[in-house]
Specification:
446 residues; 11-stranded mixed beta sheet; 5-stranded mixed beta sheet
């Protein structure tokens, strides 16, 4: 197998400003393009203007560099952390070719580049480039595995006549999950919806290049198939199973694991049982990801993640007026006064898979975990491993709600903070991978 290329959707906007550093060409002519440009839609055609000259791009036409190693391009105001609490805009620089496609009535900038170059940026964007080499090597392998699994899944989905169903809606239930197969014009996006890819800006003075080179072409496999290796920031002490977060398909290597050397004392670990989940979430059990070590966290977390330090156990409070208005706005449903929240189904990590919202006007069960996180927060709750308690009840209506939470993210697969702690304790990259992905093999594709 030769090293493949990957297409990455960077930014979707009505107008995109970009800068070409070096010599770029279009396939159709010998003209060299350099400098600042603006791309926009006009009469359903893609126009690129330098201010002095405007050209119309043909379908599937790319600007490609004459020297892929030295030439680069910058895109202005790339939105990262979309709908999360760290959302912000950045100017980002990339290598490889750039193409613009029409998507949802706007333009999307798509970057085409070699997989290994993409991966150096991914593991530098997902975590600090100063992280330990063992952590970065482990992450390079799972990021590569995840990418190839998504590319293969995209091929399989495209062959099917029917699109995958990712929701179940009735009068009493709204169950929805969010995955990656909705990207049809490119392989993956550049944000947390897929995996972070923030260009070459961070490719200096760190271990990322070395980690990718030393694991070149390596992937995790299970029964000779590349693993769909998921990861999140903090599992909260116990990881979740794939089928409880996304489509109802079981992957033996994405089953729940205890994120520690041994089961913690004093806890019943079947967190699908409500009383066990409550004790776990409101407790403080030992785990690899249960750390407040400034040295480890500052080495691992990128700058905008470092403000989040209550990731293992956290709380959030709402007044009745706040939460009823929030849920109405986020769900589009008027529940009236919120009277109660009833856990309907929990996963193995204690994460809520289904939550019944009981209001004075409407009662509805919502899921899966990301839908719950979206509805109960302005952005996203850190996770759906939550316990909600009501108080100050007046005329049967609670005036306050307190949310106790555990973990940061969906909790499936590798726990990034747990893996960072493991690497700091001396675990090697393969030991880290075998801890989070049971019964898998490391294989080299190229």
């Amino acid at each position: 197998m030769q090293e493949p290329r990957v297409s990455v959707g960077i930014l979707n906007a009505e107008k995109i400003e970009f800068v070409l550093y070096g010599d770029y060409k279009l396939e159709r002519c010998d003209e060299i393009f350099q400098g600042k440009f603006t791309v926009y839609l006009e009469n359903d055609e893609i126009k690129v203007s330098s201010g002095e000259k405007t050209i119309t791009l043909k379908p599937n036409e790319s600007f490609y560099p004459l020297n892929e190693k030295s030439d680069s391009f910058m895109i202005r105001d790339v939105l990262i952390g979309i709908a999360f609490h760290w959302q912000q805009k950045q100017n980002q620089q990339f290598r490889g070719a750039i193409r613009f496609v029409k998507e949802n009535g706007k333009l999307t900038a798509v970057n085409y580049l070699l997989v290994e170059d993409y991966l150096v940026s991914v593991i530098s964007s997902e975590m600090s480039a100063n992280s330990s080499i063992e952590l970065l090597k482990a992450h390079a392998i799972i990021s590569r595995s995840w990418l190839f699994a998504q590319m293969e899944k995209k091929k399989e989905v495209s062959k099917k006549k029917e699109k995958p169903v990712s929701f179940h809606i009735t009068e009493d239930e709204l169950i929805r999950w969010y995955d990656r197969e909705d990207h049809v014009l490119y392989d993956v996006c550049a944000d947390d919806h897929c995996q972070r890819y923030q260009g070459v800006t961070k490719l200096y003075a760190h271990n990322a290049q070395k980690a990718v080179e030393e694991t070149r072409g390596m992937v995790l496999t299970y029964n000779d198939k590349i693993c769909d290796t998921r990861f999140s920031k903090s599992c909260g002490g116990i990881s979740e199973s794939f089928e409880n977060v996304w489509e109802p398909v079981e992957h033996p290597y994405l089953k729940t694991i205890i994120d520690y050397k041994f089961p913690p004392d004093g806890f019943e670990l079947d967190l699908t049982v409500e009383e066990n989940a409550v004790k776990w979430i409101k407790g403080n059990p030992p785990a690899f990801c249960n750390t407040d070590d400034e040295r480890v966290l500052s080495q691992f977390l990128v700058d905008y993640d470092q403000s989040t330090r209550d990731f293992y156990r956290w709380t959030l409070e709402y007044e009745q007026e706040e939460i009823s208005e929030l849920i109405k706005r986020k769900s589009g449903i008027d529940f009236g006064d919120i009277l109660d929240f009833e856990p309907v189904e929990r996963g193995y990590s204690g994460r809520l898979i289904k939550l019944k919202i009981i209001g004075s006007k409407k009662t509805l069960t919502v899921g899966k975990e990301l839908e719950i996180r979206k509805i109960l927060s302005e952005v996203h709750l850190y996770s759906s491993a939550i316990v909600i308690e009501k108080s100050e009840i007046k005329d049967g209506v609670p005036q306050r709600f307190k949310i106790y939470g555990a973990g940061w993210g969906h909790g499936v697969g590798l726990c990034q903070i747990g893996a960072a702690v493991m690497s700091d304790l001396g675990y090697k990259f393969d030991e880290i991978l075998m801890h989070y992905f049971k019964d898998t093999l490391i294989q080299k594709l190229y």
